[in-house]
Amino acid sequence: MEVTFKITRQEHNSGPRVVNYTLDVQPGNTILDCLNRIKWEVDGSLAFRKNCRNTICGSCTVKINGRSALACKENIASELNRLQKIDPNSPLEITIAPMGNFPIIKDLVVEMKAFWDNLEKVEPYVSSKGRIIPEREFLQTPEEREKLNQTGNCILCGACYSECNAAEVNPKFFGPHALAKAQRILTDSRDNLTEVRLENYHNTDGVWGCTRCFLCNSVCPMEVEPMDQISKIKGELLQRKDQSDSTMIRHRKVLVNLVKEGGWVDERKFGVFVVANYLKDLKGLLSILPLGLRMVTNRKFPVSFEPSEGTKEVRKIIESVQQETSR
What we know:
There is one protein chain. The protein is α+β, with helices and mostly antiparallel strands. It folds into 3 domains: 108 residues, Beta-grasp domain (Ubiquitin-like (UB roll)), CATH 3.10.20; 129 residues, Fumarate Reductase Iron-sulfur Protein, Chain B, domain 2; 79 residues, no CATH class. 45% of the residues lie in helices and 10% in strands. The chain contains 15 helices and 7 strands. The strands form 2 sheets. The chain has a 5-stranded mixed sheet with strand order 2-1-5-3-4. It has a two-stranded antiparallel sheet with strand order 6-7. Strand 6 and strand 7 form a beta hairpin. Helix 3 runs parallel beside helix 8 and helix 12 packs across helix 15.
């Protein structure tokens, strides 16, 4: 069958343009197979990255029909079927573009320096400083090693970073790839810098910068589930930190406490408790006064609060989850 590939191309210091290539393909051909054919048979100037062709190296990540994926993993049949589920009348076309959140070098090749620099910020290697190095290797039980399987599967393909909303608005955000690796090190029984690492991740460039949009989970080809790993780090911080420690910690704990108290959030208390630290932080209180006055003036400030009829049920659910996660 004939399929048209609409490829976004870009030269250095020039704007992007879409170039169409039509190939006679088989349903089982991978997107990388087709890119190779375009380069070898049609247009040798097309630039893209590749290496193993077997979902191991992570080199060939591109946006396929708007979704970041490995070109060597996705095939023609799966992509066309996905498009037809969205629109049964969709033409036999596949769009291919470079990853998002990366500067373009040429065509589908992106500059990944920031990606690697952010990974280095979490120091993704086991530290044995402060320990007496034994004459033999550190030993782990099978159970300890099994905890590393999911996060250890990350191949640093960049798909999660390409889709990350937090990275788009904050270039200093570590990124889901780096924070998934951070959780892998925190879980490793051989590492002895847990407290130092947690402090490093305890900021808006770290775990609190995550918007929980779920996009990283949805595109990860290795099922690492980066957002879930970020949530685990947040859980560790929440267990260790008091709500007076920081606005980030207070935001989460106040939210949970208010929902437990009334079934949903009492907006009259939320901002005051979080930003002003239960009226203990005068600077924080003054910072929200202008907004509060505008809300009152525009009659947007709730003068009363009515608890949810399902408050008891909500409270039971939250307490059950808290008991489960504390085990």
